[in-house]
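SAMPLE LOG
Freezer: B-3
Tube label: C17
Construct: single chain, 258 aa
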Amino acid sequence: VAALGIGIAAYNATQEETVSEMDTWISKHEEVLSQLDETNEKLQENIETRGEAIEKAEVEAGSIDILADHLLALNEKQNKTNEEKAQMSALVDELNEKLPDLGLVIDEETGYLDMNEQAIRDVIKANKEMIMVKAAQSQLTEIAEDLVEAEMNLKDAEDARQETVEALFAKQSEWNDLYAQSQEEAEKYGQATYETTEKLRELSGEIEQLKTVRDSDNETVEAASQAIEDLNAQYDEYSAYIGEHQAAINESARSFEY
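STRUCTURE (predicted):
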């Protein structure tokens, strides 16, 4: 946005601005808007990606239940085949790897698990909840970082719009003064001079250009504001998500005490 500072000074420095000077200013301004719009798009993409990360954690948690169901079904069997014993061993290893707190062991003498089904499911439930809590907590940190960037982006967008508003005001004031001059010339000579008429036409074109730029500024500011609103909504959503799953963890902990 600092690059926009060349604009207003140039407008007031001379009465002989040309269309090329206006085009140069607009080009620099559009470069700044492009960068701001890219940031807005990136922030929105981050919001979507975080949703996918939570979904991935939930899928992982669901896969643990499937593994446990298979393991417990095998555990209930009597006279297991060597293949079934191998399957049980592999499932125990996989579950212990996913959930280090589980600590499942197959009793070598009996061939059964060393924990009953309810105890296994309680530990699994608590660990599943923790997986989802950790996933959401990591996303909260990223959201907070994005909010800082979004706030800065909004300020830059508002600054860019303000420079356009000031440029438009300066051009409109110049047009008003020249129009008054054209009226005086018309009274004195019967019509305004060619030079004045052409300058008014040029200024009118530049004013329309600046109005178009201002409209683009407004869209960028609106997108930046929307990004902040969406990020705050996602932060609140994930905070509630963490609270819900943390409550389940606490409830599981109380059940272990009994």
